[in-house]
Amino acid sequence: MYVLKFSNICALISVSDEYEIFEFLEEDNKSKIVEDKIERAILRSQMDSFSIDDDEFIKRYRLSKNLVLELCDDLRPFMTKPAKFTDLSIETKILIALSFYATGSYQRPIGDIAAHSVPQQTVSAVLGQVTQGLNMPQLRSKYIRFPRDAAQRRANILRFYNKFGMPGVLGCIDCTHVAMVRPSQNEERYYCRKQYHSLNVQLICNADMDIISVDASYGGASHDAFIWSNHPLKAHMEDLSTNEAIWLLGDSGYPLRRYLMTPIVDAPPNTPEGYYTDMHVRARNVIERTIGLMKARFRCLLVHRVLHYEPHMAASIVNACVILHNICNKANVSVEELQPEEALREYELQQLTTPRQDSAVNSRAAQNPELREGITVRNNLIDRLWTSRSAT
Questions:
Q1: Is 343 a member of any domain?
Q2: Terminal Cα distance for the chain, rounded
Q3: Which InterPro entries does this chain map to (predicted)?
Q4: Are residues 178 and 113 in the same domain?
Q5: Is 36 in contact with 30 (CB distance < 8 Å)?
Q6: What is the mean pLDDT of the chain?
Q7: Helices (H), 5-53
């Protein structure tokens, strides 16, 4: 009996036969893809995330159900509407993105959640769509608001004074590092002193831990003071401070200016300077708590989670998380605190400011008129605080 070898069979197949086989396999593959989409759509319809317990919903997505629905309304004009049964609803897209922001998990496990039930490439596409929507100017201006007029500034200043006893404070400023993978271009701009690649994100908050300004455009190699010196708000604060007793609070890594008060690192206790510094540190601590709260809510920002994106997308994710933080904060949504080991790990991987001794500040004042102005304003504030303390 003569048996054809596989090579003989292949030789007998014509070009047209090969084309027909290819078409058959391609159609079969398409059918499997369609079947998979239908199965996933059916699974999603059977596992409604909005039906789970409220506390579990917040734990999974960080926002309450009502806040998610309001966010859907905000993002709807910027999202592709579903056209067929297998398309993802806007609600599902937003929940997928929130799940990533909340955990920083890899995309495949997020897609495997039954209520999401999408492949990894879909998670990636959805995350891009939602992040882009949250970065639209309309949403940024709605949820991240630096005081725009005298009445708003007075409200911010009064809130700081009532909570911390510190007059003239419009906000507190600091930077935090958000780790990312090594970028394909300009790698040296993103390599920080802690020996990982990051964005150095500048944040300003108010007394209630709302973030009123964010700049995530600089790499980890940039110093906090450099980022501030190139920020548009610096010129705005300079203009305001010519007519108003108004300032931000920053740590000793920032330059002392009439609109930016810094602590006196070497101030002796039980002195006017020591009292001022204690008051300054207590009030400025609100920015550190704000950063900690935001990262506890949206753990994709934790240094050890590492964003696997190029700088522009990583910065957009940071901006999105700032908006979501403000939404949660205003609604007083509960948040699960970081475990002590997580908090310690984050602290160790952040770049700490080297304290700038005040004697060094004073020695440079003769050559720097802006610094001299800052010293004068700070001395007046020290006297005011000490006098009010003595009066009480």
A1: yes
A2: 113
A3: HARBI1-like, HARBI1_dom
A4: no
A5: no
A6: 87
A7: 6-12, 15-46
